[in-house]
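A further point concerns the way the authors explain their paired sequence and structure data. For illustration, here is how one protein appears when written out as sequence plus structure tokens:
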Amino acid sequence: MRNDNIRPLKKYWGLFFFLILFSCKKEEKTEAKFTLLTGDQTGLDFDNKLDLTTQMNIFKYMYFYNGGGVGIADFNNDGKKDIFFTGNMVENEMFLNEGDFKFKDVTNKTGIKKDAAWSNGVSVVDINNDGMMDLYISQVGSFDMFKGHNQLYVCKSIENGIPVYEEQSAKYGLDLVGYGTQAVFFDYDLDGDLDMYQLNHSTHNNGTFGQRSSFLGTFHEQSGDKLMRNDNNHFTNVTKTSGIHSSVIGYGLGVVASDVNLDGYPDLYIGNDFHENDYLYINQKNGTFKDVTEEQLMHTSRFSMGVDAADLNNDGFNEIISLDMLPERPDILKRSENDEDISLFKFKLDYGYNYQYSRNALQLNNGNGSYSEIAMYSGIHATDWSWSPLFFDMDQDGKQDLFISNGIPKRMNDLDYINFVSDQDWQWKTSHNVLSQQELDLIAKIPELKLENKIYLQSNALQFLDKSNAVNNVLPSYSSGAAYADFDNDGDLDVVVNNINEKPFIYKNEKKKTPQNAAALRIQLKGPAGNINAIGSRLIVKAGSTQFFAEQYAVRGFQSSSQEDVIIATGQLKADSLWVIWPDQSYTVTSVGKDSLFKLAYQSGLPKFDYSRLNKTNESAQKVWTEVAATAGLNYRHKENPYIEFHREPLVPFSCGEDGPAACVGDVNGDQREDIFFGASKTFKPELYLQQANGRFVKSPQKALDADSTYEDTDALWVDVNKDGHLDLVVASGGNEYSLKNDYMRPRLYLNDGKGNFSKTADALGQVKLNASTVKTGDLNKDGHADLIFFGRSVPYQYGAFASSYILINKGNGTFEDKTNELAPEFKDLGLVTAAEVTDMDGDNDLDIVAACEWDGIKLFTNEGGKWKSSMLYSGHGWWSSLIISDLDGDGDPDVLAGNQGLNTRMKASPEKPVRMYYADMDNNGTKEQIVTYYIGDREIPLANKTELEKKLPPVKKKFLKASDFAKADLKDILSFYDLKKAQKMEADQFANMVIYQQAKGQYSASALPSNMQYAPLTAAASLGKNEWLIGMNKYNSNVQIGRYDADFGGILTITGKEPKYQHLPGLLLKGAIKKILPIQVNGKTQYLIVKNNDSCALLAR
């Protein structure tokens, strides 16, 4: 039921619904952005044909179906971009551009010949800086039937318009033998010549799994990556002293070079398949790199494939994308193996591997040494079995767009296939490579599914629209390597893809000039003698106060490269200057007039560029805030006990047993200094810290608290319950490990003797038992005594059942009586309350109650003569996580900050297509199941996969023997043995973090908080005064499919009038699942206690 009193602010509400409903929505077919040209139309008759044999197949070489690469350059110097394709089991081939998208195969005249190796990536590079482009081919050699080494084809001449090459890898020291994926040439030491990073991959699948620490510092000649330093045109292997990983567990499939931290030195991002971490290498400026993945990335893709880097929001800092293979279509998703079981997931973490999820990852560069992974917010997290991501401005509106190549002939994660090959006899045959032709024929019958390549246009605020159907002659394919270039010299970029078992495609850009994309600059750079193509240059186009950034690197995506002019569009803005920062950090500035073509050459003696001019984030991030917990003696760390709730209730989307720790601040010993209580999880002891005269904290021994370590503490508060002038301690208990019959679900009251010593009182709070989310206090009946309200989070073992909340009235002597039925009977089934506040909302000088619930709205209980009458303060159903009530807009009445899941979510929620949970005993076994569903397109599907559902609902297994049949079935068919109309149905129709303004008494208007406050759940806030709020976010309690919400690092919310703005916290990163932010007075100054789940606390000083 909607509240007619809610009148959304039009300015924000329009943006809100845009974010919710249209993030990456597949648009109705509109004007074509590209035309797909087949090989028959272009003359590109290359065919990367793969023949499955008993000697060579997917079981012998696990990357059999990864496909080939693409290299683009003007190989014959005629002013048109040509194409080189690598073939796995066929010859590599070169095609010259004859104009009008027609190409001619000249391979036989070039001197390029393939050896007995398996070719993967190709890197275009002018290795000897003679003005003719060369080719470096990464190959699999010294593996079974593959024999050979990486090849370097140096162009010796151009004869009759055809480049002629000579293989010279040995001469340059680049005849590497290994399992090569791709090489990237870059000047990592800024000595003026191009060095090389060789990306390799293991061939051992999960057979290399083990403690990650046991592989650190080890080197594998074939699988390990290599760093090759250019020493006077001969490359020296400096891997062992460079700081890069080179072990057998490197499954490198993607590499990109980029100066991600704006210090003028190129860094590297490596995408690794399987269990090994991705690598984010930061250049240390001394010839070495440091892997900062675990320090700066909160999580990554699990099966990382191709990668790219570009500045998506014009702040100068490049974002990073890595691709995975999460299907978009429900009929593929539900027959595919994706995220792993929670036990295996935690097992890998214990073995030292980073958090990884089976989906694409978009790492938003915050410019302060942190990244927010926002692919789900951006709408690009699920693009199926994806290989090559390419960022470029397709429509030249000034925003980077995204092309993704897609498809694989044999889907090895198909659940039916996995069940087929799980047979022990089959496992033995594949491991010993003794498959017969008959058995290979069976593999050939595994369904094949070609997919369309993906085209995304960036729309607004780092969100993308799926325009994959805006292609003339759109065709599905198995596409792998891809690269872009302007093949017809019309000023926009086209794309070529290397297909498996099919001729290549070219996507011809059909951009038309409009007022939105009228301005585009084409820049041709000529670098110094040792780096003639100026690899590593950074370009900046300034258009008034807006800046547009690009970098000159050839290698990006997957196994591909392109030596192309730099094209920068400014959309509707008029460019006024072009800045080129050369690889040696000198720079050139050129005015921009009517000309769109710029040919710029490096000159010696240019001034050195000051990168602090770009790095505004670091420039402003002075140490305004400092973390002082250690110096203050606060060494408290909350630890969760090793209980996995998903084992008991495997179908729930998140745990209800990780809501701690409890914490509260107050002067407990009468010394005028504020002290701190920290609650604990089960088996751990609560702790009390007393503040000393010097501002340090000392742990106070408390026998009564130590004796209660079996409780799970979820919330706490200081309150003088018996009016003796001393603060007593009320602790709310909870968790999901005990039933409501257990006494460990009872809240507790500890009386203070006035000196900070506490003793537990028996039965002072009656017989109330609940999994409490929070406890609040106030004089509810105006008798001068503090009363208590305990709010129910959930019913243990029964997520979905409405929890009871309780109003306890102080009898005047510090004991309490349950008056819920009399004062607020609706509290008996209030719902799944996650946050609540007790305050005067209507200005009538009595206390009202505001409660936020999962699968429900935000409820207002108005005090009417000492009883509370309910209404909806905000009727949007969400997964609410926090409430902060204050006068946000300075008009004298209380407003609400309401924390929700945010919009960086796998499941999207809207009124038309809500996220639902059906709660019922569907198989009549006496236990109710939770079936969480969401929409993909117009189809409602369960969040749980077939394996998870059939464990709880055996009829599912009986009905669907094959995952393919399950994947095609709709929800009613899957649960046909139960009438869903009988189930309790709960809905969430919006996930945005909100600000709700009170316009007049009982009249509220709601709007979404700024887009950069939608990357994670808003969980805590504290007022800083002057319309500023210290913000805490993130939640880590979700199941593996949903993943951790970890994209925020703390910030300052400023509300001036109705215009909220959110900025990073200057000087600090607040990582972790923040539960509370509590102001505390320390030596006369306000500091802020940051309380986190399963983590150390922090104490912030300004």
